[in-house]
Amino acid sequence: MKNKDLLKQENAQLMQSLSQALKDDDQDAMAEAFTQFAEGVQAKIMEEYGELRQGRDAAVLASRGIRQLTTEETKFYQAWIDASKSPNPQQALADINKAMPETIMDSVIEDMQEAHPLLSAVDFTNCQGAIKMIVNADNIDLATWDALTTAIAAELSGKIDTMDMTLAKLSAFIPVAKDVLALGPVWLDNYVRIILSEASAGGLEKGILKGTGKNQPIGMCKDLDGAVTQGVYADKTKISLTSLEPSEYCAAVAPLAKKPLGGYRTVAEVMLVVNPVDYIQKVLPSSTVRASDGTYKNNVFPYPTRAVQSSVLDEGEAILGLPKKYFMGVGAGSSGKIEYSDEYQFLEDNRVYTTKMYGMGRPKDNNAFIYLDISKLKPLPLKVEVTNGEDKPIVTKAKAAS
């Protein structure tokens, strides 16, 4: 996010706890971690407000995550603030016949993508207000030089998917201390975007990678052509990857170049998603070389690869694929209003609000992602030696470490 001070090291452990709670579906641990995170963000907001409230330099404010609001956004936040002062905030908010402006959701998505590499890699779209989305499953050219025969029409229709964007619902709780509400629309926007982006990002990552398809996205690890039991998609069969040697790694990548309905596609780069522990213990040692000047170069793969860490995946498993072949649409929709909640109370001096986001995600084709077993991946780092004999130029040699 632009306001990086709010998500620095002091919150790293809290975010890890929140991610683990989401992974385990542990409601109590999730509430506890989120409480601490919200308290930390609110304290930082109050601190920055004290430092910057006299500032009028838009560039300085923007660098700290404080953006200029549109007229519609200002009215939305001001209505929220006014409703919070009512003796009956639940009814006051219900009387506000206005959903969250689309531009706020655009900003939340941008924040999530900046802070979470996986979300920036996939085809992530704000589908605000959309009931169905048409997805070109194979990036095909819909033009034809010949007459549109029945056979051609059938082939094209088989590559166009229509997705119901209301199948999955992601609820976000927004605990807001009364002191934060008193800061005004601009600062409330800063807080809400942080909470929404971080609260939603973990759930979205889980859905994108391992979603079952039942009331949630269909994950990259799922078999679109496999059995579907009561709405739950089966996992793909894992492919074993024991090293990052060029022959084995490129053999794992090669199937991604095949289109699901026949033909081939160019693959400029792939994404490898792994658990953070596996990245440190297995992937990094296998993809690090020592240069002739003694420095190390990381993430050197035999095929262009973007390595992404995610705590959603367990140790020993990984997903290899084409990130833009995963479509994820999310939006507040026409019913995306801020509502008062008396069901949860995370903080003492606060009121808790909720908003519901709707969306759906799935791989665009069944050949776009491969589920890997990397439990036996052996680190084989390369060392670079520099030799200089008499009357001989310096020669750089790379060899596998013993």
Q: What's the SSE pattern?
A: HHHHHHHEEHEEHHEEEHEHEEEEEEEEEE
Q: Helical residue percent?
A: 25-40%
Main sheet attributes: strand count, strand direction, barrel closure: 5 strands, mixed
Q: Could you list the spans in which at least 5 consecutive residues all have pLDDT below 50?
A: 1-5, 139-146, 154-158, 393-399
Radius of gyration: 24 Å
| Cα-to-Cα separation, first versus last residue | 42 Å
Strand segment count: 18
How large a portion of the residues is in β-strands, by DSSP E?
Answer: 15-25%
Average pLDDT taken over every residue: 78
Q: Count of helical segments?
A: 12
The SS-based structural class is alpha+beta
Description:
This is Phage major capsid protein. It comes from Hominisplanchenecus murintestinalis. The protein is of the alpha+beta class and 402 residues long. Helix content is 36%, strand content 22%. It has 12 helices and 18 strands. It has helices spanning 9-24, 27-52, 58-63, 71-84, 89-94, 102-115, 117-121, 150-157, 178-181, 185-210, 246-253, 276-286, and strands spanning 123-126, 132-136, 160-164, 168-177, 228-229, 232-233, 239-240, 270-274, 289-290, 296-297, 305-309, 317-321, 326-331, 339-341, 350-363, 369-373, 382-387, 395-400. The strands form 6 sheets. Strands 1, 4, 13, 14 and 15 form a 5-stranded mixed beta sheet that branches. The longest helix has 26 residues, at 27-52. The protein is globular. The relative contact order is 0.16.
